[in-house]
Amino acid sequence: MTEITRITCFDTNALLGVARENILLSWEISAQRRDVTQHQYQLQLAIRADFSSICYDSGWIGSAQSVNVALPAFIPSSCQRYWYRVRIIDDRQEQTDWSPSGWFETALLTSREWKANWVTPESEDEPAESVSYLHRMFDIEKPLVSARVYATALGIYQLTVNKHALETDLFSPGWTSYDDHLQFQVWDLTPHLKQGENALIVALAEGWFKGELSWLKKRELYGNKKAFLGQIHLRFADGEERVVFTDSQWRCSTGPVVKSGFYSGEVFDARRPDPAQHLCDEMKNGPPAKELKMQYRLVPQISEPVRITESLKPVSVLHDPDGVRILDLGQNMVGRLRVQTCLDDGQMLTLRHGEVLDQAGKLYTDNLRNALQTVQITGNGQNIDYAPVFSFQGFRYVSVEGLDALTDEQLISCITGEVLHTDMMRSGDFNCDNPLINQLYQNILWGQRGNFVDVPTDCPQRDERLGWTGDAHIFIRTGATNYNVRRFFRKWLMSVSADQKANGTIPMVVPDILREYISKIWGDETYTSSGWGDAAVICPWTLWQMYGDRQLLAEQYPGMKAWVQYIHQTGADPWLWNSGFQFGDWLALDAEPDSYFGATPVFLVATAFYAWSVSLLSRAAEALGFAEDAALYGGWAEKVSERFRQVFMLNGDMMADTQTAHILPLAFGLLPEEQRQSVADRLHQLVRENDYHLTTGFLGTPWLCTVLSAHGHHETAVKLACQRTFPSWLFSVDQGATTIWEHWDGIKPDGSFWSANMNSYNHYAYGAIGEWLFRYIAGLDYSETSVAWDDIVFRPDLSGAGFRQASAHYNSVRGRVAIDWRLNNGSAEIKVQVPANAKAIIILPEGENVIFEKNNHNSWKDIHDNHVRYIRLGSGNYHFMIEDELFGSNNSADLISEF
Ligand code: BGC
Predict the structure, then answer these.
(1) 168: pLDDT confidence band, cut at 50, 70 and 90?
(2) Total-model pTM
(3) Nearest C-alpha to atom 9 of ligand 1 is from which residue?
(4) Distance between CA 605 and CA 669 in Å, rounded?
(5) Among 369, 579, 805, 880, which one has the highest count of C-beta atoms within 10 angstroms of its own C-beta?
(6) Residues of the chain with pLDDT > 70: what percent?
(7) 28 is catalytic
(8) 109: burial class by Cβ within 10 Å (0-12, 13-18, 19+)?
(9) Separation of alpha carbons 111 and 233, rounded Å
């Protein structure tokens, strides 16, 4: 029986505060039988959960589309909850039941609906990093049906209603290019309100808006006053609707959080009265908030909010040579510590956070540069239960001063690490029979969690934590396999578009807070770089392939085009990129001593990325139906590739003999068939000559193993991935790393550290090898032309080169895609899962194999080509067994059978 197991709007089935353009519905179809496809669908929307009041009915639509279905004829009202459901007719004309329902609730959809005034609690002499409080009392005198707050801030805010902190979402309204757009949130207050007097309290900190950002120690980058904007919408049972909004009737006060900054940490004084717990008369009569006249483009929250997603207990207490106690969380994490203990009146507790210990066993903080990462708590003689609200730290170790009376065990029991990041849904997992590679994969996941904190950041600990565009595109495919990052990147890409200059340049960081300072030194034209600005093309393209969201691709298309046009006209030769500042293969090991710039010529890198971006642009144009653009940019891609070969190759060989110089043309398809193998062979030789060690940096590393595996050198790729001596991925794992390091030698073989100047132990870029683990070891991949996993490729690594078992799964918008294989003695066993409304191909080694078809179904076709056997599969679960002496046994006949 075919059925719909799940239907979602914008990837979730309960969404409070959606914008009109994000009303896109997707559903998962499931069936016992194989080869299921959708032929027709019918969607309904209702304003009651029991669908007694249908407000939209699509009727039966003949379409196979089950992903991101827009409803062009549906005009939503503001602040209205809608329930939705779907049913389909499948390829055997079988009609399903209605799906389970989901709901979304629209936000305020037009600027006219905002009645509130911006208010600031700030006085003229407000100290830096201070936290302010605002509140408003309001009465409820009759039965209430629902209550919502629509709110945003210049700064970051936390709401408390009647002592109930709405703290699950952190750092609202999030970081966007505020001058272009500012997110607002919708909060459901209904369960927290009562008859009589109610109070809404806002705590407001500087956040990204006003607080310190970057190593340049810049403050007030968007403005010099924190402010809040909010509307409480009350709907009463008698039909009355009442709005209470921010104005000068709101009162200001102080509270127990004295100071807070992302880099510096937080100061909390429990002796100070907390308005969120009790509004004393002095507070009730506090100074009125000042109204401000300001205009911001307000958009409902796009991504999932930042939340606490896990708690970790310290694993041990260490004692440094000076007797300072250091807690070890056992994991380099990003978040905060919760402290639950009794502190004497005035007793002060200081927590300093760091990622590693130095060789003497002391907390190492030099690599944090100006970020203090220090939390200070003062007691009031009572129990406290406190964790920083407006700051986060990157740490594994924490020195604790001020709790001397507690034993080590007591210390552990009163402190908990709370892990925070954007609360994306987990979508993929990888596992294999090599525990070190499994640890590497865990490190990749932790690197992602620590750096997907509202924007994709480079690092979470030092005075940086910025949205470096290069890092984001390097990691996006791995990141999108681990977690559902569609909303996260959609939000960030809106800022990328906003911060793109009229001439098409894309900044190095987004939200762009560096241009003003860096372009003064380098010039505005060069405030970009290949491999960084290309994020404007690579990220939307990757999201298109992963999620098939046409609207997102269409939104990004003008910016993708403008970026390519910029490259095209910069410099004298339209088919080469050989001017301006370039990061090149950043941090590659073939760099000159003490340099961050790798040895691969930067203009080779730039031209390779130019060609790649143009060819992706052409594919995006094709996907959107822009035939002329597709042809135009397709032609450009060929011209750039040709110039690349003319300028950077001689007689079919790369002129630069670095690993990255060989990787990029292979990865980006810049070589004609007849040159590919020799370039790949030379790469293989370079790796071998270096005793199976890499020398690559940010831009070569993500593709290194992939191009080796794809060009007949899979064993070499496996050797690199499993290499344990420096430099390698597993070198850091052997050193005890629990996240991915910025430098291959963040901790050197002799135990000393890379320069404190730039040495993060939580940088996700080199974690981009995750993509290869999925695609070439577990063998879970999609084809070049696949959209939203409609054309899956299974490529289990049955080579025996390093692995005897691996599995991976990915929860696609269509449903679960999975593979699980193992080599037994003399046989290989492979299980795969293909969701309905998708097709797949499984690639197996060629042999004199015999295929047994069970149940006389027609779900696969066997194609033999060049020592490889391709089997086409429709949806369903499959279980193959291949017998071959290759897999370790003696003399059995080659055989593929399916169970
Ligand atoms: C960041 C990077 C970034 C790089 C660009 C660093 O400070 O941490 O990851 O891409 O600068 O140069």
Answers:
(1) confident
(2) 0.96
(3) 458
(4) 14
(5) 880
(6) 96
(7) no
(8) middle
(9) 16
* pLDDT exceeds cutoff 60 at 604: yes
- Cα–Cα dist 330/327, whole Å: 9
Residue 468: what pLDDT?
98
- With left for phi above 0 and alpha for psi between -120 and 50, is residue 174 left, alpha or beta? left
Coil, helix or strand at residue 562: helix
**Catalytic site residue 848?**
no
Q: How far apart are the two ends of the chain, measured CA to CA in Å?
A: 21
* Joined tokens for residue 3: 């059925």
Mutate which of 369, 457, 586 for ligand 1 pocket (most atoms within 8 A of beta carbon): 586
* Ligand 1 pocket, CB under 6 A: 458-459, 464, 468, 470-471, 583, 586, 758, 763
Instruction: Name residues whose C-beta falls within 8 Å of residue 373's C-beta, 6 or more positions apart in sequence.
Output: 263, 264, 265, 352, 353, 354, 365, 393, 394, 395, 461
> Given 355, 464, 771, 898, which residue is catalytic?
464
Task: Write the CB contacts of 654 (distance below 8 Å, at least 6 apart in sequence).
Answer: 648, 661, 662, 665, 679, 682
The residue type of 558 is: P
258: exposed, middle or buried (C-beta count within 10 Å: 0-12, 13-18, 19+)?
middle
- The rounded Å distance from CA 527 to ligand 1 centre is 14
Strand pairing category for 374-378 and 265-269? parallel
Which ligand 1 atom is the nearest neighbour of the CA of 471? 10
CA dihedral 434, 439, 442, 446 (to 10 degrees): -160
- The string of pLDDT tens digits covering residues 494-546 is 999 999 999 999 999 999 999 888 877 776 667 899 999 999 999 999 999 99
CA-to-CA distance for 685 and 680, rounded, in angstroms? 9
Residues paired with residue 153 on neighbouring β-strands, in sequence order: 228
Closest CA to 210 of 127, 290, 267, 154: 154
Distance, CA of 341 to CA of 334 (rounded, Å)? 22
Report the range of poorest mean pLDDT among 490-494, 682-686, 822-826, 838-842. Answer: 822-826
Report how far residue 95's alpha carbon sits from residue 133's, in angstroms, rounded to the nearest whole number. 56
Across the range 768-773, mean pLDDT stands at: 98
Amino acid at 431: N
Name which of 531, 499, 526 is nearest 513 in CA terms: 499
Residue 894 has pLDDT above 80, yes or no: no
**Amino acid sitting at position 519:** S
pLDDT band at residue 844 under the 50/70/90 scheme: confident
Per DSSP, what are the bridge partners of residue 251? 135, 288
Euclidean distance between CA atoms 879 and 832, whole angstroms: 7
CB contact at 8 A, 420 and 308: yes
Residue nearest to atom 8 of ligand 1 (CA): 458
- Sign of the alpha-carbon dihedral angle for 328, 331, 333, 336: negative
Tens-digit pLDDT profile for residues 665-720: 999 999 999 999 999 999 999 999 999 999 999 999 999 999 999 999 999 999 99
636 burial via Cβ count (<10 Å: 0-12, 13-18, 19+): buried
Is residue 870 very low, low, confident or very high in pLDDT (cuts 50, 70, 90)? confident
Pick from 487, 483, 490, 176: which is nearest to 304 by CA?
487
Q: For residue 129, what pLDDT is reported?
A: 98
Buried b (16+ CB within 10 A) or exposed e, 154-175: bbbbbbbbeeeebeebbbbbbb
Structure confidence at residue 495 (pLDDT): 98
Candidates 887, 882, 876; CA nearest to 897 is 882
Question: What DSSP designation does 587 have?
Answer: T
Q: Which residues pair with 816 in a beta bridge?
A: 811
* pLDDT at residue 234 is higher than 60: yes
| Candidate of 468, 476, 587 to mutate for ligand 1, largest count of ligand atoms within 8 Å of Cβ | 468
468 CA distance to ligand 1 middle (Å): 6
728 C-alpha to ligand 1 centroid (Å): 20
Q: How far is Cα 534 from Cα 664, in angstroms, rounded to an integer?
A: 14
